Amino acid sequence: MSEDQKEKASHDGGELSIRPAAGHQDVLKRVYNTWTASAYQVLMMASWTCNIVLYSTVFDIGGPMMLIYSTIIVTVGQCLLMSSLAELCSIWPYAGGQQAFTKYLAPSRVRRFLSYVVGWAVLLGEIATASGCAMNSAQIIVGIVQLSYPDFISQPYFIWLIYLGLTLLSLLFCFSQKHLPAIAVAGGIITLGGGIAWAVSFLVMAEKQDVSFVFNTFINNSGYESTVWVGMMSFYTPVYALYGTDGILHIAEEIRDAEKSAPRAMIWSMIFSGVTSLLGALVMAFCAGNWETYLEADWPFIAWLVDTYQSIPGASAFNIIVVVLLNFLITVGINTAASRLAWGMATDRALPFSSTFSKISEAFNTPFNAILLIVGTEVVIGLVVFGSDYAFEAIVSLGGAAIQFGYLIPVLVLIFRGRETLPAARSFNLGKFGIIINICSALWSALVIVILFFPLYVPITAGNISE
């Protein structure tokens, strides 16, 4: 049977639905190895910067104490989830990622529908996340300008123009495949180096909090009365830092020896990012400074940086060189992953005009049309800011839940079908603990989805419905 016939049989519910990657024809060049793929994923999470940007959320929802404890819990939960997905990736290292896993695992009667739903959910989640990163950078830039020039009054078009510039610039960085590993390594170095520079400078210069405040003080400015629920809601910040973990799945067809390298990169990058996120949480907690005053500012984390560095130019330079630059490189990484997912879905006829979006550019060795689709959609989403900032933020918030939905479904389908349906010969095998890890992964992902659908603050207003 030819490869095309095998694919059709798999797609239509034939006996070949559970099959390993052997015989899959390469279309994209394999330019990543284990280390460059790991650097790509570490960049995509940039975990310690998320703690900084969400300064106000940290100090409203549980405080630094809960940030530390929730980071440990979230790291364990995400490692279990990534282990489940890494095992599937070792069998089907295809650009569709979760969509491909669902296609090969689901019963024939729901295979096409369920795989399309998963693919679309993840694709929209990726687009929303990239849009959120670009908009966050635009807002930070405006915040820095307002800090330096207090009389400056920002207008929606000003933010949108910066957003547009960053989004279109990311398109240029996604063109050529051969440069993508170098961008990933540069981003990984900036993530690690910037984190060390931030930690050292704050440990030396910042006003310190005592041990009791760091480990024993619970803060609740959310409006919720239940301490347990607020503790669970404190998962939001580390989840935000560690949920962008499916990028490797979508570049798997560009990784050498992907059946082995991709799962290793997924696991090691998650462990590394979890550890650095925890270290960042500890530094943030001890170096919190006059946090109650900072929370009164429009941008609490910028006020924190300015007060610690005792310099508006110093804080501005840190934000531009580290936070905004990393946000931009993350946008490039997400657009790369999303374009590969769109291309993979197009090859499965899961997109309108699939014949157009399934093409690979011979000049750049990338799915160029798919990249244009992703960036074009992000430009359109950015126009929402002219109508309502809150509507834009609601779209971005739903993106996180959509990505988690994409994590959950293939794991649930695997539990439903039974692990004995997986090929015995696979390079990453969870062994006798597999079913326990799969069940814990599914429960964890379901919990995260529930948390992401609840507002961080009550009563709900137009200003906090998307938070």
UniProtKB/TrEMBL annotation:
Keyword tags: Membrane, Transmembrane, Transmembrane helix, Transport
Membrane-protein topology: Multi-pass membrane protein
TM regions (residue ranges): 37-55, 67-92, 113-145, 157-175, 182-206, 226-244, 265-291, 311-330, 368-388, 394-415, 435-458
Protein name per the record: Amino acid transporter transmembrane domain-containing protein
Location in the cell: Membrane
InterPro entries per record: AA/rel_permease1
One Pfam family named in its UniProt record: AA_permease_2
Species annotation: Bionectria ochroleuca
